[in-house]
Amino acid sequence: MLLDFGDLPDGFAIRAEHLVSRAADQGVEIGRGDIVLVRTGQVARARRDGWGDYAGGPAPGLSFETADWLHRTEIAAIATDTWGFEVRPNEFDDAFQPLHQVAIPHIGLFIGEMWDLDALALDCASDGVHEFWLTAAPLPITGAVGSPVNPIAVK
């Protein structure tokens, strides 16, 4: 399912209550095994205004405080249109990508980054349906901890 936040400013920390509220607004229920896509609008902004420091710079994204929500909902994966999934600058001065440090090894969550969600968002908005079948198979690389994917959403 797609949770479309429109165009969030860089540094905006998406909290659990934002995710719950957006899901309710869009009429979707998030549950065990779901793949949740979070559109912040950063890719659309980069296309419009230039890529600048898209890869490595400030970005809207998930707050560290969403770790409990990510664990409790038992979703299978979450992906965003930002380069790093979580809010940048990070919420702690002495930790780089702290949500990654919890979500990947301790929750076992698959994370997608830099997904182009704009066309999907337009389609979802046109018919009000934010749920779809999604596949995003990784390359079969033995021992890898990450891989490019070619996500396909079918409505």
UniProtKB/TrEMBL annotation:
Superkingdom assignment: Bacteria
Signal peptide start-end: none
InterPro entries reported in the protein's UniProt record: KFase/CYL, KFase_sf
GO molecular function, one term: arylformamidase activity
Biological processes annotated in GO: L-tryptophan catabolic process to kynurenine
Name listed for the protein in its UniProt record: Kynurenine formamidase
